[in-house]
Structures are given as C-alpha cells and as structure tokens.
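During the reporting period the student researcher (J.K.) took over the structure-prediction task from the postdoctoral fellow and processed the backlog of single-chain submissions. One of the processed entries is reproduced below for the supervisory committee.
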Amino acid sequence: MWLLKPTQRDAFITNIAIQTSSYISDMEDPADRFIITAVLWAGCMGGTRAIRDKKVLDVIPADNGQKIIEGHISDAERLAENNKIEALTASDCLYRHGVEVSPILRKTIRGQKIFYNGIPTNSTLMEFIKPFLE
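J.K. obtained the following structure tokens:
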C-alpha cells in the first residue's frame, strides 16, 4: 500500500496549492486551488481507469521489490466504471472536465492504446474518446 506519512501528505498538498497559483490565478485560497486540482485529477484518473486494458489484481513482495499481478478488464467491468463516471459527471462539472482529459493522458501523453469495449456509444466518456479512435 502506498500511503504517505502525515508530514509527506501535508507537504504534497501544500506544494500543489502553491504550484497551481499561476494556473488557477483567480482563486486566492490555496485550499480551494487544491480541491479544484484534486477533483480534476480524480476525473482524469477515473476516465483513464475505464479505458485501460489491464487492472492490478495483486502486489506481492519479490526479491527485487514488488511484483504486480495484472488481469484484463472485462466489458462488464468497463461498463461498471463507466456507470460510476456517468453518475459523477452528471453532478460535477470539474470531474467531467477531468474525464475529458483522460484520453489525452492515455493516448497522447503516455502513448497507450484506448480500450472501449463495454462503454456505451452515448456515454460521456465515449464522447471524449471518439476523436482518439479515428
């Protein structure tokens, strides 16, 4: 499990609040900037999680650190992830904008393929990934 100590966590939050001041310049309160950034990031990670091929099944100790055991994501699992995204994007525009960035992160920045079997053609996520499938 990757958990931060309280001092590390506080430093991480403070750093994000400071670093975002030039990007979110109309928000003076660092806590507000952190919240906005965290919701955008959560949306991006939610979308990216839904369009990946594999998921982590287990992490086991190995001689050289840790070994990650992966398994393919089924269409039903991808649909379940999509349903969570649909519920959140319906009520949170910041989360929606984070989801919008997920195909950019996956394909453009990371150079990874987008997997979309199980995602309904009329879903918010499909709306955002369609341009990357052509």
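The committee noted the following: Strands lie at 54-62, 65-72.
J.K. will present the remaining backlog at the next meeting.
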